[in-house]
Amino acid sequence: MSNNQQSSKGLDRRSFMKGAGMTAIAGAAGTVASVAGTTASAQESSSLDIPKLANGKYDFETIYNRVGSNCARWDSPPRNYPGGEFKFGMGVASMDFECAPCITEALQERINHHSWGYLSSTEGLRDGILRWNGERHGVDLAPEMVTISDGVYPGMIAAMRAFVPRGSKLLLSTPAYTGFYSMASAANVEIIDSEMKYVNGRYEIDYDDLEAKMTPDVRAMIVCNPQNPTGNVWTEEELLRVGRLCLEHNIIVLSDEIHSDVIRRGHKYTPFASLPDEAVVNNSVSFNAISKTFNLAAMKNAYYYSKSPVTKGRVDKYHRAELSTLGVVANEAAYNHGAEWFEEANAYMDDTHSYIESYVKQYMPTVGYTKNEGTYMTFLDFSKTMESVGAKEMFASHGKASPEHYFQDWLVHNSGVYLNPGFGYGAGGAGHMRMNIASSRVVIKEVLDAMAAAVNKV
Ligand SMILES: Cc1ncc(COP(=O)(O)O)c(C=O)c1O
């Protein structure tokens, strides 16, 4: 039986652990597992205890094996490492947690109908979207303000086509999600980067630079809230300032809020459409999904909305979505019954972020990291290690696109850990690597120990 034919309970966890370099993991639900047989430097660093688990209903600690399930995070990178050097997929933004039971139950129920013709209605899904945004985030949306899509990508590409005519440009605060560059390419649009400043451990918008780049040929700006990969959860004041600058310069705001639920304790997500300035809000389109919240990326479901019917109508003209029955069922179940699961997952990830921050400070002193305000990504500053391994001098002769790509390879060969290279995130990405932290802390600890051993030896 192949891995993807096995039931979730029967997944071949032992072979996964072997592949992941874990020699003895006690994986009983609700317990903190012990890791034995690790390298000398890993043993030294394992004195930092993994945070204790809260008494929750759901288990995020037991390793959930996704290897062999045609999963981008774990099954794509090994294709480039046929020698078996790859051990830990810490790149692509998807979660390693078993999904909320309400989603599996709803899918199982629907599968009992052996019929897969065209869908009749998405009313239930739309209700879920309106309720989720209203109750959780205080955004008052009417059904006609929302267009359901099969991803943030198609909506964004439609908006770029609508607002950025050929020869015009799109502005982006960077470092920012690599996908914005592919969306812009699909829409045949040029992106102008405005690099953020790193001030006291936080990325800040460089307003002087941003405004200087708001030339008449710039027609749209992407706001990423929370910002992937830096984790910024933008405040009302920051969003208003950007929104007013855009309005002044005749630039439409495309606000990507796909990470809006994944907010760290002590921070508050402000939907762009809830800003206290009607003109600013009407000059925007927001893009969202619960695919990050519930790990439903391949269920192809998202939406965009605008409080201005004219603005939304312009995007609609260029947009066409094809939804799948199972995607609608899964998303509806998550909106209607998943909140409790997500609260626990988010609290778990919060503790993981804090754990990583302490670990990096204590055991990887040459690596820079401040706990993100949102998202389940971290943007680690490896510039010192990259200098030590000569990434700048070596990348071209090794056929790599950037020093960060060279370092990505170096890290896999020296620790088994696969991260995303900062190069792809635009200006400001140099020297950085993005790490996904949405995994069991048993895995996170193994990853950190392996990286520390590699980094500290150079
Ligand atoms: C900021 C951001 N926008 C969009 C996406 C992709 O959205 P979708 O899969 O709905 O097209 C991602 C995925 O990681 C993301 O981080």
Strand order, largest beta sheet = 2-10-9-8-7-3-4
Distance between the termini: 43 Å
> What is the CATH C level class of the largest domain, in words?
Alpha Beta
Q: Multimeric state of these chains?
A: single chain
How many alpha or pi helices? Answer: 18
How many domains make up the 3D coordinates? 2
Q: Specify the biggest β-sheet.
A: 7 strands, mixed
Reported by name, the CATH topology of the largest domain is Aspartate Aminotransferase, domain 2
What would the principal axes of the Cα set say about the shape?
Answer: globular
Low-confidence stretches: 1-43
| Number of β-strand runs | 14
- Bound compounds: pyridoxal-5'-phosphate
Average residue-wise pLDDT: 90
In CATH terms, the superfamily of the largest domain is Type I PLP-dependent aspartate aminotransferase-like (Major domain)
**C-alpha-based Rg, rounded:** 22 Å
Structural class, from secondary structure content?
alpha/beta
Helix content: 25-40%
Work out the strand percent.
5-15%
Going by CATH, the architecture of the largest domain would be 3-Layer(aba) Sandwich
Verbal overview:
The protein folds into 2 domains: about 210 residues, Alpha-Beta Complex (Aspartate Aminotransferase, domain 1), CATH 3.90.1150.10; about 220 residues, Aspartate Aminotransferase, domain 2 (3-Layer(aba) Sandwich). It is built from 18 helices and 14 strands. The strands form 4 sheets. It has a 7-stranded mixed sheet, with helices on both faces. Strands 11-14-13 form a 3-stranded antiparallel sheet. Helix 4 runs antiparallel to helix 13 and helix 6 packs across helix 7. The chain starts with 12 loop residues before the first helix and ends with a helix. Pyridoxal-5'-phosphate binds next to helix 6.
